Amino acid sequence: MAARSRVSAGLLLYRHRAGETEFLLVHPGGPFFQGKDRGSWSIPKGEAQANEDLLTRAKIEFEEELGFVPRGNFLSLGAVKQKGQKTVHAWAVEGDLPNDFVLKSNTFELEWPPHSQQRKVFSEVDRAEFFREQIAREKINLAQAALFDRLLALLRAN
Known about the structure:
Layout: E1 7-17, E2 20-28, E3 45-47, H1 54-66, E4 75-81, E5 87-94, E6 107-111, E7 119-123, E8 125-132, H2 133-139, H3 145-157
Parallel strand pairs: 1-5
Antiparallel strand pairs: 1-2, 1-3, 2-8, 4-5, 6-7
């Protein structure tokens, strides 16, 4: 029996500064991504259950990882397939971090170090930051970079 393909849903928050579009990316917390930067950042996203409304899941994951939900016109960016065969469905929304923003990510528990029988709690996201396009392309998971192209094409068309 084939394994069910994993599906995630996420939001790409963007803003305009000094004539450039900036993208909000998050850095995964925990020991596996500590010290990793290029190609490690992502849009805020999370795994969806079968038959779940994906935009609703994207909003929930954004709130769980950042502590608030952006409001506005959500633009569908379609889906991308990552290296591990996870399909990520994404929407873009224009906005900014609240003035009083403090990262409030949910957490996960993991045996760390491996085989130590010690459980440690880590933040799912340890950083959230806006980046200009060129820097964002260097930092984001390679498969997700196509989301920038799709958003920029939609913005040019309007």
